[in-house]
């Protein structure tokens, strides 16, 4: 008799768990930062619902088509709103400038897309007098990658179009330093 009652409890719990499943969006193929979301890389899946995780509902599939990945998305990841953007970078007023730096010259926590930087320009030219206040350009991290074969991290930064010609050559020669600025509230 105890075995029958125990079996009924297990069966009830199993059915109850299966009924608490929600249809959510899942990445089915790796999506690189900035790539559009398509039917080829996102689908729906049934998962056990947990109200503390902000997953996108399966009903949101038509809404996310054409949006872009705000970060690299790996296959099997449950999709969240913060992982998507409708912004394309660089915008018409911006240029993307890659800066290669040693990992030891980056914040220990790393850099994330959206982090604000002050890129200090330090031309190695003896004719340029030292200045008391650093000369620099404000930038926003678009993407990071590495370390590469040379042991360098590449930080792609977005800068105003007018600042790119000044930053580009100095970044290519390694004559910049990166300072992390506070996040905007």
TrEMBL record:
Residues 22-85 form the SAF domain. It comes from Nonomuraea insulae. This is SAF domain-containing protein.
């Amino acid at each position: 008799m105890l075995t029958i009652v125990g079996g009924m409890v297990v069966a009830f719990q199993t059915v109850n768990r299966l009924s608490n499943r929600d249809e959510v969006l899942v990445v089915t193929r790796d999506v690189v930062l900035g790539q559009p979301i398509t039917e080829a890389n996102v689908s729906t899946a049934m998962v056990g619902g947990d109200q503390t995780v902000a997953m996108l509902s399966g009903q949101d599939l038509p809404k996310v088509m054409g949006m872009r990945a705000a970060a690299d998305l790996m296959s099997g990841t449950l999709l969240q709103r913060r992982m998507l953007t409708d912004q394309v970078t660089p915008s018409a007023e911006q240029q993307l400038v890659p800066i290669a730096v040693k990992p030891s010259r980056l914040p220990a926590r790393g850099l994330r897309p959206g982090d604000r930087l002050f890129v200090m320009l330090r031309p190695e030219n003896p004719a340029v007098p030292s200045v008391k206040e650093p000369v620099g350009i404000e930038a926003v991290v678009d993407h990071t990658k590495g370390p590469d074969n040379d042991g360098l991290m590449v930080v792609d930064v977005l800068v105003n179009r007018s600042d790119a010609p000044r930053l580009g050559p100095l970044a290519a020669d390694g004559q910049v330093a990166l300072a992390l600025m506070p996040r905007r509230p």
